[in-house]
Amino acid sequence: MKWITREHPKIDRIACPWLIRRFIDPAAEIIYVPFDQVLSQAAAQDATPFDIPGVELTHYGDECTFDYLIKKYAITDAAVLSMAPIVRGADTDRHDMAPQSAGLWAISAGLAHNFTNDLELLEQGMVIYDALYSWASHLQQEKHTQQPFEQQLLAVLNEALKSGRGRRMPAWVQELKNIIQDHIDTSLTLKELSQDLDINPSYLSREFSKHFDNLSFGEYLRKQRIEKAVELMRNPAHSLTEIAYLTGFSDQSHFSRIFRQHMGESPSDYRRKLLKK
Fold first, then answer.
1. Which element (helix H / strand E) includes 5?
2. Looking at the keywords, is DNA-binding present (predicted)?
């Protein structure tokens, strides 16, 4: 059976093919095409479309397509159910849903950066999700820092980091703000930014919130994207779906939810008032 979705996958459009091949359709052929060709190619190739607006297999409320596939096909595997909030949190930028969500997003973004061919990316992603499934099945209670001295070392390190706060802002902070502002409509990762700034990525990740209003990289990026979306709303030629993709959101549902959180009302209501001014 053929399954089709939009090109340039990162989270849901890798996680869903993994779920389809492992639990729904082992011989599934996954097809990636440009966003505006998904429905026409689905009809032409007799393929099932997924993870785009307006089809059955897509986001609903706060849940992503991975969640819907689990429900539709009545998948009860305990490890898959453990994976669901991790995938959901990574796909919707809600890293508070599961401790592993931020890591899954970082790995997925890096993988997409390294592999520009979508089918090659999918094959690499299958390995990642097989590994995540093994962790969910057998290793959830395992920890890297098993020995007491490792915990003590981490405690000392955390105290040292706290004592360093309040110093003068480093020069790289303003440079980073400028880079984010200039590339807000593209895919940004801390790894790429650390290379541009010639800063250790672990250091950048640790120090980021200290200089960006106590926001994580993901929170700050979402805030900047919402501000960019408001600018685009002033042009009636852009649909809300287009604005969602132009500002880096996974789909219009994701964009609408984050916009409401930041602005207190839906994008359509906000735009209606904006254009009346």
1. strand 2-6
2. yes
Q: Residues 55-84: pLDDT tens digits?
A: 999 999 889 999 999 999 999 999 999 999
Ranking 25-29, 57-61, 78-82, 210-214 by mean pLDDT, the lowest is 210-214
82's tokens: 């453990």
The dihedral over CA atoms of 180, 186, 187, 188, expressed in degrees to the nearest 10, equals: -10
Rounded-to-integer distance, Cα 234 and Cα 79, Å:
46
Q: pLDDT of 134-173, one tens digit each?
A: 999 998 887 765 555 566 666 666 665 555 554 566 778 8
Tokens of 40: 């026409």
Find, among 14, 4, 180, the residue nearest to 91 by Cα: 14
Residue 188 makes CB contacts below 8 A (sequence gap 6+) with 180, 221
> Residue 223 has which token pair?
């805030």
